[in-house]
Specification:
single chain; alpha+beta; Jelly Rolls; 4 domains; 6-stranded mixed β-sheet; disordered N terminus; disordered C terminus; binds 2-acetamido-2-deoxy-beta-D-glucopyranose
């Protein structure tokens, strides 16, 4: 009835009908999954717990009332001693559609007996299963496929909303003089209450391994190549039969880093976890080497209480020409946003015309993502463009959501696996607003040398800074000679168009100094108060977190942070 697992690859099309209910009840868009608090009930595929059905008392009640009424609010549909209003954050039954409910935390499911697993609920919840789907992958049964299980030791989970934790594993079970392909992985989820995602990255000989689980916002230095990922709701990764991710000493990958993202919104102190993955590895090399590519937007600013906020990002024709040395073939693709994600798609275009949709999620489900398998794989040529569109819905939020790594920050990425790996060196084609981050060249971006801009003793930077600081006020007021100076300075590649806001964002990234803050303050002293980018300087493009595919940019940033005086 209520299979909370689902999770076959190539998921069945979901109807958007249950989205309707999100608006009709208080906190309807973030009712937690009954047995896994970091899942949401509407993300769980099979229909709608509120929509009726014999095993769903609240559903029947809802079917009777059709909308949130005081009477429905005062009922205890699941018989667990809490009224529907208490469970959904409307204890006084005063909520009306379109308004923020009285409480937004401690929400429980009105149709499932709480606390889950307690004696009184065991019988009532018999029909609700929490199993995950089955991992199916023919390739792992081939001869010569061996498996390697990597798991964290039992580790206490910090009482934090979001934690990234890394641990490095040596690949000393592999023969030094052989090449290997990694062809799939199956998660072992020990504590489903908190596991949000796992990323396996390959480490080269220069990496310094983490021998004990340690907090990490980025994969450790030298461990940047994404090899496998698991995210909430996936049964495992099964690589297309003609490709594999190269590992082993000959491939320059001698160890693997495993990064966990735990979500612990209730900040519980008693959670432990020893999750991990089983990797499937073969010496029978497949025809192609595989790799990851990420598209999407790294600058997000989603106002609260909006039914629909659309963010776009283009991996332009020019970018694909820059980053691709030959055509590639996409094997899989999926969308990645966080809790406010509503719809997403990545579109493939050629010669300015749409060829196809790659990841058309009409209903995006954060905790039950659709993995699109392309069989045959989809060709992308240099000169094609990849257009990512993310639709967010923030009706239940009272504050702005920005780009960031926490589960309650937002993201907008299309994630793809492709072959041949050799065709694309840079693993991402993302933008920051409309700044194409594909144009990184050494320490330069769009001809702006970031090393110069953030180096206080460089004469070029000194000239630029003096121009502004000598002509403009740092603390308030527009001086008459300032506009001309600013106009000139804004011709500089580091301050042209959206680059100014991009650099402004970086200044929060630890690469900054008081002088940089003064410079920006002076630079903007004559701008209108409603200039859009000035309010968006909070979240830097720092660590790639779980999204190590975006690492090339992060490496660049990490590089400055280290090199600056
Ligand atoms: C790993 O390999 C062993 C021995 O070949 C086998 O018994 C086991 O079932 C495999 N584990 C998985 C998860 O496939
Ligand atoms: C990258 O920068 C170097 C010098 O800094 C320049 O010679 C080269 O042409 C640049 N490459 C591209 C693709 O712009």
């Amino acid at each position: 009835m209520f299979n909370l697992g689902i999770l076959t690859l190539l998921l069945v099309a979901t109807t958007s009908a249950y989205r309707f209910y999100q608006d009709e009840i208080p906190n309807g868009d973030h009712v937690p999954h009954p047995c896994k608090p970091n899942y949401l009930w509407w993300g769980v595929g099979h229909g709608n717990p509120l929509g009726g059905g014999p095993r769903n008392p609240f559903g029947q009640d809802f079917a009777r009332y059709h909308r949130w009424t005081e009477e429905l609010c005062r009922l205890d549909s699941d018989g667990d001693g809490m009224t529907n209003g208490q469970e959904l954050g409307d204890p006084n039954c005063v909520w009306t559609k379109g308004n923020l409910p009285q409480e937004s935390t401690g929400i429980t499911h009105p149709g499932v007996c709480d606390p889950w697993g307690s004696d009184k609920c065991r019988v009532a919840n018999k029909a609700v299963t929490c199993e995950t789907g089955e991992f199916k992958c023919d390739g792992i049964n081939d001869q010569d496929v061996m498996n390697i299980t990597l798991r964290f030791p039992l580790t206490a989970i910090p009482a934090e909303e979001t934690t990234y934790m890394c641990l490095t594993f040596e690949l000393d079970m592999l023969e030094e003089d052989s090449e290997y392909h990694l062809i799939g992985s199956k998660p072992f989820i020990d504590n489903a209450n908190v596991m949000h995602h796992i990323v396996i990255t390959g480490c080269d000989a220069t990496s310094s391994p983490l021998r004990k689980p340690g907090v990490c916002n980025m994969a450790p230095t030298g461990c940047q190549k994404t090899l496998q990922t698991w995210t909430l709701g996936m049964p495992g990764e099964c690589v297309y039969r003609e490709a594999g991710f190269k590992i082993g000493k000959l491939a320059g990958i001698t160890r693997l880093n495993m990064q966990f993202h735990w979500t612990n919104p209730q900040k519980r102190t008693d959670y432990m976890d020893s999750s991990g993955l089983t990797l499937f590895v073969t010496k029978q090399l497949r025809r192609y080497n595989a790799a990851y590519l990420t598209t999407g937007q790294m600058h997000l600013d989603i106002p609260p209480r909006m039914p629909r906020v659309v963010k776009k990002s283009s991996c332009t024709a020019e970018c694909t020409r820059l980053i691709m040395s030959e055509p590639v073939h996409l094997m899989t693709g999926w969308n990645h946003m966080h809790y406010l994600g509503y719809q997403q798609n990545v579109e493939l275009n050629r010669n300015g015309e749409k060829l196809r949709d790659l990841t058309p999620d009409d209903v995006y489900s954060y905790d039950n993502p659709t993995v699109y398998e392309y069989n045959p794989p989809v060709e992308v040529r240099p000169g094609d463009s990849l257009e990512t569109t993310c639709v967010f819905r923030s009706t239940s939020r009272s504050t702005t959501a920005r780009y960031g790594e926490g589960s309650f920050d937002e993201m907008c990425f299309g994630i793809f696996t492709f072959y041949p790996a050799e065709a694309i060196e840079m693993s991402s084609c993302v933008t920051w607003d409309d700044v194409d981050l594909c144009r990184v060249n050494g320490t330069s971006l769009n001809d702006c040398d970031l090393m110069i801009f953030f180096n206080p003793s460089h004469p070029q930077r000194q000239r630029l800074f003096s121009k502004v600081l000598d002509n403009c006020n740092v603390y308030g007021g527009c001086r008459s000679e300032c506009p001309a100076a600013v106009e000139e300075v804004r011709q500089h590649p580091c301050l042209r168009g959206s680059m100014e806001a991009y650099i402004g964002d970086l200044k929060q990234n630890g690469v900054s100094s008081l002088e940089v803050f003064k410079f920006f303050s002076a630079l903007e002293s004559c701008d209108c108060v409603d200039k859009p980018h000035t309010s968006t300087w909070r979240y830097p493009v720092s660590g790639a977190g779980g999204h190590t595919a975006v690492v090339s940019i992060s490496i660049l940033l990490a590089a400055f942070t280290m090199m600056l005086p």
